[in-house]
Amino acid sequence: MLNSVINAVTHLSMSNYLISIVGPTAIGKTKLSLKLAQYFKTEIISADSRQFYKEMQIGTTVPSTEELSQMKHHFIHHKSIEDNYNVGAFEKDAILRLDTLFKTHQVVIMVGGSGLYIDAVTKGLDHFPAIDTNVRETLNKKLKTDGIKSLQSQLKELDLDLFNTIAIDNPHRVIRALEICIGTGKPYSSFLNKEKPKRNFKSISIGLSANREIIYDRINKRVDIMIENGLLDEVKELQGKQHLNALNTVGYKELIKFLNGEWTLEFAVSEIKKNTRRFAKRQLTWFKKDKTILWLDHTTDFNMIIEKLKTKFKT
User: Vertex 291, ends 287 and 294: CA angle to 5°?
Assistant: First the structure.
C-alpha cells in the first residue's frame, strides 16, 4: 500500500510533502507521527519549542528513548536552555534540514503543539518594523515592578485578537506583542498573515481532536505520570537558572514556586494541571484558525488516516 501511495504522489506531482501533526497537548501526536514515519519510511521534525532543550525532558514529554530509536528525529535536545534560540532561528534551521531530507524522502513528518513554530515552517514568519529599543526596556521595567498581569491587561486592550491566541503567560511573547502595538500604533495581529516566502514543498496538516472532557482527563493523567517519573527532581536541578525564559514553562514555573517556598506541592501540581488545560485551549484556538487543517478524532483508525492522505495527495 505504501508503494501505491507514493506512486500516486509521484504520478500526480513531483512535489515534496511535509505532513504536520498538530493539536492540543496529550492528544497523541507523537504516537501518530511515529506510525506515519514508519509507513512512509521517513524522518520526523519536532516543532515543539520546549523539546529543543536538553535539560528539559520529563516536563516537556520528549519521546521516550524507545520512540526516538524507532525513527530518526530532528530538533530534539539540540539546544541548551542557556542558548538564545527563537522561532526565527528555528525556521531557518528547519528549512535547511528539509532541503536535505527531501533529497532522499518525498514525504517528511513534522509534529508539535507550538503553533507559531509550525506556521514558521509551513507558511513563513510575518515581518515586523523595527521598534525603538526604549519601548522594550520600558516594558521590561513594568514587568518587574507591576508583574505580568498588568502587561496582559494592556495587551488585551490594544490587541484582543492576539490576547486570545498567544501564550499569554509567557512574558517574552507578551512584551514582544506590546512592543509592536506601542511602537507602531497598530495591533500586532494586523501584521500577521501577509504575503510569505514560497516553500518548495506542499504542506498537509492533520489535527487530532477530542471532546474537552477527554482532553482534560488525558492532561491530568499525564501530569500525574510526570510527577511520578521525577519531574520535581528535574526542576530542582534547574532551580538556579529559573531566570531563563525557557523555564517559564508550564510544569517548571509552578514547581519552582514550590521549591522557593511560595506554594505547597499539592497546590503546585494542581496549578500545572490547570495551566496545561489553559494551554491546550489556546493551542486549539490557534490551530482552528487554519481552515486547511484536516481534523480527525484522536481514535481515528490509521488506515482511514492513510486514505485521507491519499485524497490530499491528489488535490
Answer: 80
Q: Which fold has domain 2-125+201-313?
A: Rossmann fold (3.40.50)
Residues facing residue 18 across a β-bridge: 108, 203
Return the CATH number of 133-191, one of 1.10.20.140, 1.10.10.60, 1.10.274.10, 1.10.1200.10.
1.10.20.140
Q: Which of 125, 130, 123 is nearest to 87 (CA)?
A: 125
Q: Tell me how far the alpha carbon of residue 165 is from its chain's centroid.
A: 13
In the chain, where are the structural domains located?
2-125+201-313, 133-191
Q: Say how many Å lie between the first and final Cα of the chain, rounded.
A: 19
Of the candidate ranges 35-49, 97-111, 133-147, the one whose mean pLDDT is the lowest: 133-147
pLDDT tens per residue, range 196-254: 778 999 999 999 999 999 999 999 999 999 999 999 999 999 999 999 989 999 999 99
